[in-house]
Specification:
It contains seven helices and seven strands, in the order βαβαββαββαβααα. With 192 residues, the chain is an alpha/beta fold.
């Protein structure tokens, strides 16, 4: 590899949405999924930032020489965090709580090379339409809610649940591209 060629970013995530966004941006990356104990309650911004940093720290134990990106996205309504629903019934309950209301999608990003992590966050407001029981039932039947914070995927059929968003659309998908590019990514990807 030429001396000034970018080294691949190490993405500490299993998320196909995050991989797709990095590919769309033309950022070379490799995937290194990690398992960490994630916070599930507390201030949504601090929870997302802390979880992202924990992912970076776990990946750094395996790849101490790499530039590592950890991301965590949470959905919050009135300060309450809605994680990934464990069942279809839980997904229905979450969607009914979000119906007709504005919630926040908060992503924490941690980018680290060696011992110098940059930790930032992005917040996007999402307003749901009023959702009747039939619409919620039909959406949950798609299975799209599974593995999604807040129980929906805005880039899929979940777009039909949304009245409007204020902020970064890609944040709601799973990786706020603009905020990522604000980080000192270019310098960190260069070889020493």
């Amino acid at each position: 590899m030429p001396r000034d060629a970018p080294r691949p970013l190490i993405l500490a995530s299993r998320s196909p949405q995050r991989r797709a966004i990095l590919a769309q941006l033309g950022i070379p990356f490799e995937v290194l999924p990690v398992d960490v104990e994630e916070l599930a309650a507390g201030d949504p911004i601090e929870v997302a930032r802390t979880n992202a940093l924990r992912k970076v720290q776990a990946a750094a134990r395996q790849r101490p020489d790499g530039t590592i990106l950890g991301v965590d996205t949470v959905v919050a309504l009135d300060g309450e965090i809605f994680g990934k629903p464990a069942s279809a019934q839980a997904a229905r309950g979450t969607l009914k709580r979000l119906a007709g209301r504005t919630h926040e999608v908060v992503s924490g990003l941690a980018l680290a090379k060696s011992a110098y992590p940059q930790v930032v966050h992005e917040v996007t407001e999402v307003t749901f339409r009023e959702l009747d029981d039939d619409l919620v039932r039909r959406y949950v039947a798609t299975g799209e809610w599974s593995g999604r914070a807040g129980g929906y995927a805005i880039q899929g059929r979940g777009a039909g649940l949304v009245r409007r968003i204020m902020g970064d659309y890609l944040n709601v998908v799973g990786l706020p591209a603009a905020r990522l590019l604000d980080l000192d990514l270019t310098l960190m990807l260069r070889e020493n």
